[in-house]
Amino acid sequence: MRKLGSREKKAQFFAKYDSFFPKFRRKVILVVKKNTEFSGNLRVCANVLLAKKSHKVYVYKDGSMPASLETAIKAQGMRVLKHNSWRSFYHIFTSGVIFFSHVPRDAHISVKSKRRVIVGLWHGVAFKNIESQMVSVAPEKLALIEKNAVLYDLMTASSQKDKKYLAKSFMVDESIIEITGLPRYDLLKSTYTLDEFLNAQKQQLERIKAGKKLILYAPTFREHCGSHLEQISHSEWRTLNDFMIANNSVLGVRPHPYDLKHSPELFESLSNIVWLGQDEFTESNLVLQYVDALIVDFSSIWIDYLLLDRPILGFAKDFEHYRDDERGFAYDFSSTFPDVFVNNITDLIIQLDLLLSNGIQTKKYSAAKQLFHAYDISADFSGNLESSIKPYLK
Description:
Helices cover 36% and strands 15% of the residues. The chain has 394 residues and is of the alpha/beta class.
């Protein structure tokens, strides 16, 4: 397998041999991006497919997977494909339908096959720029995005605005994008059926909350200046911890999957700050069920959270850097972000104090919801997805 070690060589290998293999429409593969885990839209899609009991469902990741997660996937009735395995390559070659949380090159697909269906379940609503719209996109990447555009048969979006932005970012025609709402929105609901693996996480969240208010801080990653978590000093973390103790609250910290993988050592000494990383809590929207207020920088997690009508605060020390030198924003920030945005810990605590001292109130953020959501929380997002993919599964 060393000869196929690089991403580029695997893509070349697949491009050369894919056409020689038959494709079976009842063989479905859910593809996880290398630096992430099986979750969100892919998980809900898997539940839709498994309920039909008419397809063999595989999960592929070009990288290692936590043993506990692999066991849970198998327990649900899916098969896990190991990376760098000829058996896995065979199953990809012969798959009739592939679902992606990110892009087809995550499964080494670069050439269109008329016998295979490609469905893009982009993992969130874009708020920071993605794909062709990123700041200073290299010409070779732009060419790759344009080449990959022909691969897609179907993509899903959350709203009309989201649909237009996805079409522009991926250079695809709007006609292949259906507005279903993101499947993962169903995971915001306490009524959504969880497997044993997620039930254990739910119970852990209940123990963490234990009658307290849970405030979640969920920043996105930086490509050029390190983690935003590291921009917060030790003394500032201690100040936040003291504030949480005084207000019978817990601050949960959930970094982006590309960011820090482990809790900072300092957190071990902070009683009311807890690490809610993806390694232990795989579903962001399950976490959001228990969150009373959200602190966010430029991550689109707040767009999911809009559906719960709870308070959102913005906080980042490096706003100008991110806007000008990192991703930039898909929309005008000042008119789109739904609430107050601050750039220092002192102002953040002032805003948190206002929230907690008045008792956390419902916040509907109607303008932002109208922009990003075609459906409210009562919608059947799994059903919407099932209706959209049904013609492609026959």
